[in-house]
Amino acid sequence: MRRPRRSPSACAPARRRPASRSARRDRGPCGCGAGAVRRPRPCPPVGARSARRVPVPGGGAMAGVLRKTSGLVGLAVVENPHERLRILYTKILGVLQNIPKDAAYRKYTEQIINQKFNLVQTETDVQKLQDKLNSGHIEEVILQAENELSLARKMIQWKPWEPLVEEPPSDQWRWPI
Hints:
The chain is an all-alpha fold. The protein has a domain at 69-158. The protein is 39% helix and 2% strand. The protein is built from 5 helices and 2 strands. The chain has helices spanning 21-25, 81-96, 104-122, 126-133, 138-158; strands at residues 52-53, 66-67. Strands 1-2 form a two-stranded antiparallel ribbon. The protein is flat and about 70 Å long. Complex I is composed of 45 different subunits. Belongs to the complex I NDUFA5 subunit family.
């Protein structure tokens, strides 16, 4: 059975179909828009903890500006990146001690982490450290270190250095079959 057509009311002469459910809820009983009005949420306040002083390229009067954002969506400014990287690299090296010395993952990861760890210990300027690490913003480097720590812990569970339970088929890597 079809629903009867409603005649347009005086307050909504040209009624359009709203795009979403929330838009329908915001309309009044006759569809005019005089219903509940939703206001956008304000942005969270930027506190002193989310900013750090960063030298601006070129120096001058702006040499010690307060950097409030990383410029990357979803990555907040890290207050003390050197300390955070020291902690992460130390944890990664500690986790790698649980992997056999002849495992390829341990050898190459230890080599890379030791190089980065030495740079963090020797370079005090954040901008110069960013340039020497050559891995993007310092916040991205910290994210990479966190991901590497997570991977190292998973590698201990997976034990890829152990032999397979059963031999793979001899034509496993041949294509087409």
